Structures are given as C-alpha cells and as structure tokens.
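Technical note accompanying the year-one report. For the benefit of new consortium partners, we illustrate the data format agreed upon in the data management plan: each record pairs a sequence with a structure-token string. No post-processing was applied to the example shown here.
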Amino acid sequence: MSGRARAIVIVLVTACLLVLGAAPAFAPFGRTAAEAINVTEACPNYLSLEVVTMAPDPGPHGPTVTIQAYSPPPTATSPGKLVLNRTVRVREVEPDLNPIASTPEDFFFFHGRAVLFWDAGRLAPGTEVAIGPPDVFEDPPQDQPIMKTISSRCHTPGLRLDFVRSQSTAQVLTWRVRNPNSTAVEFNAQVLSPEPIQVKLGTAPPNGEVTFQTDRVPGPNIVLLFVGGKLVNLGVAL
C-alpha cells in the first residue's frame, strides 16, 4: 500500500473510531508510513507528541522512533537549523490500533506519547518548525514534515484525579476526574504496570467530573493522567 493510500485509510478509520466513541488518543496522524506522529503542542520549551509505529521487531520494551525538527524549515537553498533530535520509546498499549489495513504488514501495533525538550533551548513564540522522522528530511524526502508554529499560549489545563474507594478485594477500580475549567478537557489515563499497559481515554465536562474504571494490577495501582501528552496528575490505590 502506498503512503498516500495508507493516509486515506488511517484518516477514515480514525473518523469511524471517533464516531463510535472509541477514538485513539491521537488523530489524525501527520505521517502515515511505517511511523506516524501527531504533534499536540509546540511550546517555547517543549514539544508534546504521540507516536504510532509498526516496527517488524519491536523487542521486549517496544520500538523506538527518532524525531527531528528544523527551524527555519529546510528549503532548496537553506538546510535550516536542527533544533530537535531525540529518540522516543513507543510502548504497547491497549487498545491496539489494528486493524488499520487488510494485511498484517500494514497494522500499527504500537503507540505512545512523549514530551521532548528542544535541543536548542527555548524557541521564540511564532517560530516556524518542521517536525518528523529523519527520512522526511532526506533528499529526496520520503514524506512531508509536520509544520508547526511555536505558541505563546502553552497552558495545559489542570485536572484532578481521585481514586473512588472500593473493597480491597475488588478486581475493578473506579477513578474520578474533576475538571475545574470552563471548557471540556480531553485526557488519557494510563495504568503504570508491566506491559501491556491499560490506557483509558475520556473527556471531562466543563466544571464537572467523569469516572472510568481500570483492572486491578498486583501491588499499588498507580494511574497517570495526561492532557495533550503532558502529565498533569496521578492517583494511587493500595
């Protein structure tokens, strides 16, 4: 399947998942070949993104994906300055993002999130940045980079996560997310445990709250709460 055809397939599948209320934590993707990234925030001191990959041999801890960024974006006459060159580890999570296409080779089995700090230090708001895996900057490029402008308004909404008390023998735990903001906030909740990890996706209503459940894991149950790929809170159930 060509990169363009795969892009169409992923966008359609993502749209269907959104309609069914089972959307992945990121959509749509900025890259749609063997790796795909979605930039959620481009701030003066960090870049927040989510990644999927279909590495053929991911290894015991999941595959890694290298992310680069140039500012100003490379042109035919100017290479631009390399402001980010980091490797992100992508951990297997539930639910998987397959099937994306009709053959196993076209499935995305792994996705993860990361917050990367610029190698060049803080970038001025308004700076134009080109972001992608290294091969989008090759000659000829394998795909188009993601173009982002550094924002001066990088304020991640705060949420509160609480464990709802239950019996110590309960195998299903309930958690409450409270949103003090006047607008709805989408979140990802991740259980800190051996792979495969549990990921819950949800939306906290304005000035309201929502609950979700996780399966109990051995030892303390620790849930990390992310907004836009950035850790905003955590909860613990003993």
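Partners are asked to follow this layout when depositing records. Residues 3-149 form a domain with the Immunoglobulin-like fold (CATH 2.60.40).
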